[in-house]
Specification:
Order of helices and strands of chain A: HHHHHHEEEEEHHHHEHHHH
Distance between the termini of chain A: 35 Å
CATH topology of chain B: Rossmann fold
Order of helices and strands of chain B: EEEHEEHEHHHEHEHEEHH
Number of strands of chain B: 10
Structural class of chain A: mainly alpha
Shape of chain A: globular
CATH superfamily of chain B: P-loop containing nucleotide triphosphate hydrolases
Oligomer: heterodimer
Radius of gyration of chain B: 18 Å
Number of domains of chain A: 1
CATH class of chain B: Alpha Beta
Bound molecules: adenosine-5'-triphosphate, magnesium ion
Helix content of chain A: over 70%
Largest sheet of chain B: 6 strands, mixed
Number of domains of chain B: 1
Distance between the termini of chain B: 39 Å
Chain lengths: 362, 241
């Protein structure tokens, strides 16, 4: 039993992710525990809002595994995020609330299918990375434009009105069970749901990134030609990663629509497509942990600045991006993490040197 | 017809530039060939065509009787063709250990123990065990070349293609490289095709030589025959002396 657990933890560790020591995993467990306890003591509004801020992390992680780990620069994850919200909205409005989880599954599955189609075209079509960036940006803007044109009663799917640029309203929250036994995921339950999903996705990604597959993602980023010469089909690696990233973005989109009870085309606009790139670049694109921290923090700052008007937050992000590129090319969170790791290592060595048993051997 | 590699009437042009013009030769399984020829005569172009990076304009390349021209690079690699290209390319940001892991994990699958064993063996063979944790981009040029050779041989390929493997190496490193290649060829029976300019290296290999000129194999023989052949002297050594 103990060794099974040990194998499990080992599979989550590796050079592709930060932290592997017992100290790291103890801290990780404490953070998880705090996340699960927080709603009990926190205020309703704050808990709900923090749950909402965590939703963006899924979008950040989606860009992170594509760009940071596999070297695919995609502006399209925002479109998948928004479209998943729309799919969830349309389906959930049309079915009884106790089946809303089914709507969530529909949203994620459809977006993964869409990712597969788009990914197949761009990777098997041999489109170069610059054009992938432009093409995926156009997809995002296309989704925004098309959905903005859907105002009027003729644009309805069942009882769901698409609502044009005003967006779709009346999207029910996620729920399991019905009647007296229902858990509706709003406020505190919503926070628990998001936190649990985030921990699951985070650990799942750690497992993936440190598996053989993760090494291939990194190899494809570093040198696609070399990777092919070792007998790996990089198109397949890119396509599978793209589908997984699409699914993670879609999960975020579903949670977003469910929390907001609303989704609008502006969630797929130019600003919305750019922000994830900044979260990822500023945090540290080759670390899911850095991106998790930076996405939450930056969206919190974004929210604070937005109270004073959108222009401040855009200005802040522009300056942040410049500073990151010039001063912390590996990302701000990653730079801090590396300094912390070095400090801990130095302390460990110092302690070993002092220990009477090992002192002589070092 | 028992050749492992058969090249037949291979042509390759880039736009109007005809580089390979009817190149033909064969290599039996387990043998080694050295491909010589003046700068820019198309040696690298041949290797790249053989591994699927270029599509031949005409002609055929066969591996154990099966045509491989037209296959994707990864498909050719899966048939047991391993390559070290002329321009060194290692995964610079990754450690030496991770570099080799990527090269072998297709063979060793998910079993961590057998994978680590193959990685350690390879590190031992190329003498980089003490550098296993270092970033590959920080290695000296010669060590990067070794790492690349190590990655190419780690998966036990049937055929090893090396494009100027000793470029930038010291004379001792060159001799060590020759020993590694000889061991692979003689003890493990690996078929090897090497492009090389360094004469000390070529003579250490003591293998039959193919001279490429004007897009086709101009002469085949031992190094001594090549050195004394009047025509080869003119096109090759003559141009350098
Ligand atoms: N992708 C390409 N597109 C156009 N021309 C090319 C391409 N690759 C090679 N060439 C040309 O083909 C010719 C042969 O080049 P190649 O690199 O095969 O020569 P080489 O025999 O390997 O020379 P060297 O000894 O310098 O390595 C050269 O004239 C080169 O400019
Ligand atoms: Mg060459």
């Amino acid at each position: 039993m103990r060794s099974k657990f040990f194998d499990f933890i080992t599979a989550l560790n590796g050079p592709q992710t930060v932290g592997s020591s017992p100290l790291y995993w103890r801290s990780f467990a404490i953070v998880c525990a705090l996340l699960l306890l927080y709603p009990i003591i926190g205020e309703d509004y704050a808990v709900s809002n923090n749950g909402f801020l965590m939703v963006w992390v899924f979008l950040g992680l989606s860009v992170c595994i594509l760009w940071g780990y596999t070297g695919i620069f995609s502006f399209g994850q925002t479109a998948f995020f928004g479209l998943a919200g729309y799919v969830y909205g349309v389906v959930s409005i049309n079915i009884p609330p106790e089946y809303s989880m089914l709507a969530a599954v529909c949203g994620i599955a459809l977006i993964m299918l869409l990712s597969a189609i788009v990914g197949y075209v761009i990777f098997y079509g041999g489109i170069s990375s610059l054009y992938i960036a432009i093409f995926t940006l156009m997809l995002t803007l296309l989704a925004e434009t098309l959905l903005s044109r859907t105002s009027g009663p003729q644009f309805r799917i069942g009882s769901a009105l698409l609502g044009g640029s005003n967006g779709m309203v009346g999207i029910p929250p996620l729920q399991i069970g019905s009647g007296d036994f229902a858990i509706v995921f709003v406020d505190k339950p919503f926070f628990w749901l998001v936190a649990a999903l985030l921990i699951l996705v985070f650990l799942g990604l750690r497992f993936l990134l440190n598996s053989n597959w993760g090494y291939l993602m990194v190899a494809t980023r570093e040198d696609p030609l070399r990777t092919q010469l070792f007998g790996y089909d990089i198109r397949r690696i890119q396509l599978m990663t793209y589908i997984i990233a699409g699914g993670i973005a879609a999960l975020g989109g579903v949670l977003f629509a469910s929390w907001n009870n609303f989704i609008a085309p502006s969630s797929m606009g130019m600003t919305a497509a750019t922000l994830p790139i900044i979260w990822v670049a500023a945090g540290g694109r080759a670390s899911i942990q850095a991106v998790t921290i930076s996405t939450f923090t930056l969206q919190w700052i974004n929210q604070q600045l937005a109270y004073g008007g959108g222009e401040y937050s855009l200005m802040f992000f522009a300056i942040l991006l410049l500073c990151t590129v010039m001063l912390f090319p590996q990302g701000i969170v990653t730079t801090i993490e590396m300094a912390l790791e070095e400090y801990l290592e130095r302390r460990r060595v110092a302690r070993l040197e002092k220990s009477p048993l090992l002192g002589g051997r070092l | 017809m028992s050749d492992l590699v058969t090249v037949e009437n291979l042509h390759k042009s880039f736009g109007g530039l005809q580089v390979l013009r009817g190149m033909s030769f064969g290599v039996p399984e387990g043998e080694m060939r050295v491909l010589l020829g003046p700068n820019g005569c198309g040696k690298s172009t041949f290797l790249k065509t053989m591994i699927g990076l270029h599509r031949p304009s005409a002609g055929e390349i066969r591996l154990a009787g099966e045509r491989i021209d037209g296959l994707h690079p990864h498909e050719i690699a899966r048939l047991g063709v391993s390559t070290k290209l002329q321009v060194p390319s290692v995964f610079r940001e990754l450690s030496v250990y991770q570099n080799i892991r990527i090269a072998v994990q297709r063979e060793t699958g998910r079993d961590a123990r057998s994978r680590n064993m193959v990685i350690d063996e390879t590190l031992d063979m190329i003498g980089l065990i003490t550098q296993a944790g270092n970033r590959a981009g920080n290695l000296s040029h010669g060590h990067q070349q070794w790492l690349e050779i190590g990655m190419a041989i780690a998966s036990q390929p049937r055929i090893l293609l090396l494009d100027e493997p000793t470029a930038g190496m010291t004379p001792e490193e060159t001799q060590q490289t020759a020993q590694i290649v000889l061991r692979l060829n003689r003890q493990k029976g690996m078929t090897v095709i090497i492009v090389e300019h360094d004469m000390a290296f070529v003579s250490a290999l003591d293998a039959p030589i193919l001279v490429l000129n004007q897009g086709s194999i101009f002469f085949e023989g031992t190094l001594r025959q090549v050195r004394t052949h009047q025509g080869v002297k003119e096109i090759y050594f003559g141009s350098r002396a």
